[in-house]
Amino acid sequence: MHQWISSHHLHDSSYPHSFLSALPFPHIILPHFLTQHMFTKLSKALKKESFTFYNSDLYQFRQTQSLYTSQNTFIKSFCSFWTSPELLQLIMQITGKKINPSPDISGFLYTHTDYLLPHDDHVTEEDSTRKIAYIYYLSNFTASDGGQLDFFDSTTQTVARSYLPTENSLLLFDVSKSSFHQMREILTPKKRFTITGWFHGH
């Protein structure tokens, strides 16, 4: 774990309270999550993956196949780390959720005019096992670039919190029928790379 995760994230007892008390629904951002060395190697490796363009009324973006299928040696190492008992235990300690050892792992690329409209991640009955969503950012954006992640207040249906992509930060949030969120349209040719997926449970 120490070769992957910045050491201060392994011993911070305030994280569970920060996660559970966050509004409008439980979430937390862990900055500088990976060591700089691992972040740099992962960023280079992900950008070599093949991304497929997807478009619908709800979204427009480019996505890799499951990173479990990658032939890149470092991506394989990352997937092994991401499914390790130690990493899963850390996620469970932070969120208080019991999760399975096989999270979804895919790379996403958003660029000029791409977007993701408001949704709650419970798209189908099959998605009901999603407990914790995660976004690991590999890009830095400013407000003028767009691409903010917005969290909605389910009562007022207005944006309650908004986060710009910050490289090497991990965002975790609770998946429920009230965890509506969106990704704002990208306003510049800048590329927004993430590794995104869900930790599942029952």
What CATH architecture would you give? Sandwich
Q: Superfamily at the CATH H level?
A: q2cbj1_9rhob like domain
How big a fraction of the residues is strand?
25-35%
Order of helices and strands: HEHEEHHEEEEEEEE
Supply the CATH class: Mainly Beta
CATH level 3 topology? Jelly Rolls
* Biggest beta sheet attributes: 11 strands, antiparallel
Q: Count the helices. How many?
A: 4
Topology of helices and strands:
Elements lengths: L14 H7 L5 E4 L5 H11 L5 E4 L3 E5 L9 H10 L2 H11 L10 E5 L4 E5 L10 E8 L11 E5 L4 E6 L6 E5 L6 E3 L8 E9 L2
Antiparallel strand pairs: 1-9, 2-3, 3-4, 3-5, 4-11, 5-10, 6-9, 6-11, 7-8, 7-10
Question: Can you offer a commentary on this structure?
Answer:
The chain is an alpha+beta fold and 202 residues long. The protein has one domain (7-200): q2cbj1_9rhob like domain (Jelly Rolls), CATH 2.60.120. It contains 4 helices and 11 strands. It has helices spanning 15-21, 36-46, 73-82, 85-95; strands at residues 27-30, 52-55, 59-63, 106-110, 115-119, 130-137, 149-153, 158-163, 170-174, 181-183, 192-200. Strands 1, 2, 3, 4, 5, 6, 7, 8, 9, 10 and 11 form an 11-stranded antiparallel sheet that branches.
Outline of this structure?
This protein is α+β, with helices and mostly antiparallel strands and 202 residues long. The protein has helices at 15-21, 36-46, 73-82, 85-95; strands at residues 27-30, 52-55, 59-63, 106-110, 115-119, 130-137, 149-153, 158-163, 170-174, 181-183, 192-200. Helices cover 19% and strands 29% of the residues.
